[in-house]
Automatic annotation (TrEMBL):
Entries under Gene3D superfamilies matching the protein: Nitrogenase molybdenum iron protein domain, Phosphorylase Kinase, domain 1, Transferase(Phosphotransferase) domain 1
Protein name: non-specific serine/threonine protein kinase
Pfam assignment, any one: Pkinase
Transmembrane spans: 315-337
Amino acid sequence: MNVGPGSIIRGYRIERVLGAGGMGTVYLAQHPELPRWDALKVLSPQFSQDAEYRARFEREANLAAALDHPNIVSIYNRGDDNGQLWIAMQYVNGIDAAAAAERDPRSITPWRALHIVTEVGRGLDHAHRRGLLHRDVKPANFLLSMGDNGEERVLLTDFGVAKSTEDTNELTQAGGFVATIAYASPEQLSGDRLDHRADIYSLACSFFRLLTGQNPYPGTQPAMVMMGHLSEAPPQVTAVDPTLPAAVDDVIAVAMAKNPAERFDTCHEFTSALKSALEYGVSGLSMQTVPHNRATVAKKPPSYVPTKTSTRKRAWLIGGVAATVVGLAAGVGVWAIQQGSTASATRGILADARAQNPAFNGKNIVVMDISGKSGYSADMDVQLKPGSQSKFLEDLGFTYNPNFLCKGDEPNPRPIAPGSDTQYAALTVVNSGYLLAVRSDTDAGGGGLVNLPAAVTSTTASVIVLDDPAAVAAIRQWSDNSEQVLLDKLLPILRKSVK
C-alpha cells in the first residue's frame, strides 16, 4: 500500500509528510470528522508484518494513550488498515529542538535549553510515576511550538520504544539496539535492567547537546561513543564554554553518573539543580542529593559495571576544579576590580540588612547541618567559628554561639557522631537563642520540623529550618555567590522567625 498526499487511511486524508523514523513515517492528516489536523504515524510496510515490530508499535499506542500531560504528545486513536498499522496523535505545529539548534545555534541560550529540558522533565516524571520509561530521550523528540500566550511550549513525543518498568521482555530491532547511542545510558548499552534513571541520564545528555552544540561523547565510530558512555568521566560544559558556571558541571556529573544509584531520582531534582547552578553559580542539588563537605573528594568515576541490583550508597560526584591560566596582567586587573566591586556591593547589602533588622542584634545563633536519613540516624555537623557561615550571620548582627569555636586544626564543620546520646551531649550547650537547622535529610522539605533529630527539637533554643536546595548548597559549598543566595533565601526566613 502506497501512502502519499491524498491517500485515505480509515477516514484520515493525508496532506503531507511531517517526518520519518526507523519504524515508520509521520504524516499531517485531516481528521475524518473533526475540523482539526492530526499527526498520523504509519508503520513502514516491510515492518507491519513483522511480529516483533508490530508488538512494539501496538504497545506504543497502548502505553502512550494512558498518559495525559501538557508536555507529552497525546495519542488519539490507533488501528490497522489493510495490514498496515497506524496511530493518530496530537499535531504540534512547530519544530523539534534538534532542528531548531541546527537552524540557529545562537537561539538556544542556556536559559532556553534549561526551559526545554525542564518541560520535558515534567512529562518524563509524569510517565515515570505511572511506571513507563521512554528510552529514547533526545532533542529530536522535543517538539517546540508557540503557545497562545506567546510562550514556547515543549512536548515530548515518540514513545516508540516506551516500556513499562514491569515489562521484562526486551523488544529490539532484529536483535539490535533501539535507542540513539549519543544519548543512551551505560545500562542501556550494556543490556542491563533499566529504570527511570536511564531517561534522566539521556535528558542530561540532551541538555549538554543543546547547551554546547556538541554530543557528550563525540566520535565518528559508534564504538567510540559507546566507550565514552561506559567508561569516560562525565563531560564538562565549561570545557566548551568557560563562561558558564562550574556548578553546571557538578550537576551534569550527578545526572550522568555511570551507576544509576548515584543519579538524581527525578527529572525535577535534576532541572532544579540546573536552575540553581545557572542562576546562582552553586549546585543546589535538592534534598538528599546535596553534596556534603565530608564527601566532596573529587575522583574519576569508575567504568560502568552492569549489575542487576545495587547496594551502593549514593556518593555524589563533585566536578573537578578547572584551573584558569591568566596570561595578561591587564586581564588580572580587570578581574580583581570586578571581584572587588561585587564584594563591596554585597557588603553594603549586608550592612543595610543589619540596619533594617535590629531584632537580629546580639541574638545567639548556631548552624547545625543535617543530612542522610532523618531522625536519630541523621548525619549531623555543626558549623564552627571562625568560618564563612558564622561571619555571614555576625555581619547581620547575630552573636555566634561561643560554645562552638574551632579548636586547632579540627574540621569545620565539626561532625557529631551518630546516635541519640552523642547528639544530646553535643547540643546540651544550645540552651538559648536560635538553632539554624540546615536540612537535606530524607524528610526535609517545606521548612518543617518533621522527623528532625530529637536532640535538635528538644533544645530550649528556637529552631529555624532552612531546606531550600540553593540555600543549603550555598552554606555547604561556600563560594563568592553564597552571600547573595542567602540574602535572597535565608534572610526572609530569619525576619519571620527572629523576635
